[in-house]
Each structure stands twice: as structure tokens, then as C-alpha cells.
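Self-study notes.
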Amino acid sequence: MHPAFWFAFGLCALAGLSTGVGSLLGIFAKRTNTRFLSVALGFSAGVMIYISMVELLVDAQHRLVHVWGVRSGGWLAAGAFFGGMLLIAVIDRLVPHVINPHEVHTANEMAADPARHKLLKTGLMTGLAVGIHNFPEGMATLFSALNDPALGVFIAVAVAVHNIPEGIAVSVPIYFATGNRKKAFGYSFLSGVAEPIGALLGYLLLAPYLSETLFGLVFAGIAGVMVFISLDELLPTAREYGEHHYAISGVVSGMAVMAVSMLLAR
């Protein structure tokens, strides 16, 4: 077992279970602070995009070029990067639009839905969808932390922030359908458990084959997954929750924090 495994796995667990934070906000807050969520989601997108393009993809290219040469290594890195995008895009296509956690609504909007008997099914199906989406995110956090614990912390924080609205999306329909806060929180919490489970399964499958080539392919794939999530989920959702300028200020802030942090760490 990799010496940093338990630290990396702990980060995955914390990131995944942050859906519980969203659940608590959804079922106890009288009003969703949409401006804060807009900036926070933009910040998360900025962190993910900067890490992916400046750190993970560059690291992947160096590893693959070292083993396979400039031409072949470059093609492998590019292929894995877009392969990661394709993976998460296929998952999105398999999840029906109406329950896709990438189509997030505010707690107030979901509470206003008069079809209470449909809300429970919506919440449960959204929880299943969130769980499916969390599998590759768990692997992204785990393998990044195995390679660089400090980098893993930043990725875990970014994933945790973006899991908060997903927790809201799961818990609010269930709460307003049943009136049971414990049940709503429980299902939201369980949807986040998929993140450490996905990380564990990924590690068990790939650990026997860890090498420079595999790390390079995994890091490039993770970069693709995180860029796609940022462009397809975080930025559109940030704009839905607040004004365009709030979202962009969050993106720039996230990139700036990552740039400064990485420079200070060197």
C-alpha cells in the first residue's frame, strides 16, 4: 500500500461527505445564500482549472515523455486528457436531464414545487446520480494526493465546495416530500459516500500496476475530468446562483490563490 494512502483516502472522504453540509444548508436555512454559492462555485472552478492545466497535465506530460519520448508521450497525455473528458461526458449523458446534479436549482425553487409526491422520487434519483458522478471525482482526489499531498488538499477543498449544491439538490426534495430532516440528511450523506468508495475501488484496481506511465495517464485523465466538470457544471451553476461577475470573480480568485500557494510551496 502507498505510504500516503490513508491521508489521501481521508481527503476523499471529507470531500465526498461535504454533501452533508449542503444537506444541512438546504433543510435548515430559510433562504439559500445564492451570492455566496456563486462565488464559491466559481472559486472551485478556478482552482480545478488552474490545477489541471498548470500542474496535473504538465506533470502527466513529463512522466509520459520521459518513458515514451516526446512524440508518443505527448499523444498519450493528450489522449488521456480528452479521454477523461469523454468519461464524465458519457456519465452525464446516461443520467436523465431532470435528475442530473449538474442541473442545480435553489432550495427555494425546489421547495415551491407543488407536486410533493414526485419530490421524494426526484430526491432519491438525484442522490443516485450524485453518487455516480462522485466515483471519478473520488479517484481524482485520491491519486492527486498520493502524488502530492499538498496538491491533494487543494483538490479536495475544490471538490468539497462543489459537492455542497449537490447535497442541497438531494436533501431538499426529500425533506419537502417527507418532512423528515433525518431522512433527507441521511440520503444526501449516503450519496457522498460514493466518493471515497470510488477512490478505494480505483486504487484497488490500479495499485498493482502503478508506474510512471500509469500515473501519467491517470493524472492527464483526472485533469480532463476536472476541466469538464468546471466548464459543464460549476461555471453554469455559479451563473445560475448569482450574477455573472460574481462567478468570474470567484474563478479568478481561485486561480490566484492556487498560483500563489504553489509558488510559495516551491
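Second protein, same conventions, sequence then structure:
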Amino acid sequence: MKNLTLCLASLFFAASAVTANDSIVIDIKPGKWKHEYSMTSESGSFEQAMDEVRKQLNALPESQRRMVEDMMAQQGINLDMQGATLEMCITAEEIRQGMWTQEDGCTQTMTEGEGETFHVRFSCDSNPPTSGEGTFRIHDPTRYSALVNVTTEFNGQPETLVMEQKGTWLQAECDG
């Protein structure tokens, strides 16, 4: 379960972390954001593994299950049957620099498309190596959406994941 959760989190960060070139301005509000995402795999293996994690979590005694859920919630992570959410703070400085939660070992680039749509490409020297590309669209300063194709390995086999993501600004203040 731990490895699967770490894989899920690293894919999220890789897809949401972008490095803008000097000419790109990301017009979003700084503060606390809720990121919602769902993933589907080409083979169905990822979904089967997530179902197994959920079954194992549900099979725990209630006190242990709550403890695991509370630990994940303290990190801003909520897994349910439809997808996952993560709450995190994005500072004005990170927006100004064009960098969001850059994961160690990852490189990300973003190029401008039409309107408020950007093309995102990333590569991570993770275990397993993970890369991908997709589109990132800013609807207004408080909402965005993304669609990213991710190439990785799952259970030792090459896998392609499609990740849909949306972000919603919650508030200006970030809780500790």
C-alpha cells in the first residue's frame, strides 16, 4: 500500500509541477488549492491495485482504518472510489517563478498554447522512471484543469496512465 500511495503522489506532483519559461505568465491566485485527480491505466492493472488497497483499508479494524485515513488527511490526501484529492499551498513567489511543488529528480517544462492552455511535459528519474505530457488549462484565477498521459512501469510492466486533474482555489491563507 505504501509503494502504491507513493507512486500515486509522485505522479500527481510530476504532472502538476511545471516550470514556465520567462514569457509565460500563470494567472492564478496564491493560497490553498484543492487538486482533484483520477487515473486510468491502459491495462486496468492500476485500477485493480487501487481496488485492492481500498479493500485492505476497509478490512482493517475501524480504529486502524481511521488512523491511516487521518494520517493521509494530515498530508492533505484523500483517496475514495472515484479518485483522490490533495490540498496544498501555492505561494505568490512560486507562481511568479513559474514553479509549483517541484519534485526532486524531475524536470518539467510548459509551453504556451492557445488562450490560457499550456502544453506540459515532464520526466522523473524515479523508480520506476516516469514521464508524460499533456495539456493544462487555466479557466480563471481560481480554477484549472489538466489532462496528462503518463508513461511508467507498474508491477514491472510498461504502463500508460491517463490522468485527469482539476484544481480549485480554496482560500488565500494556508494552514500549517
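Instructor comment on the second fold: The mean pLDDT is 77.
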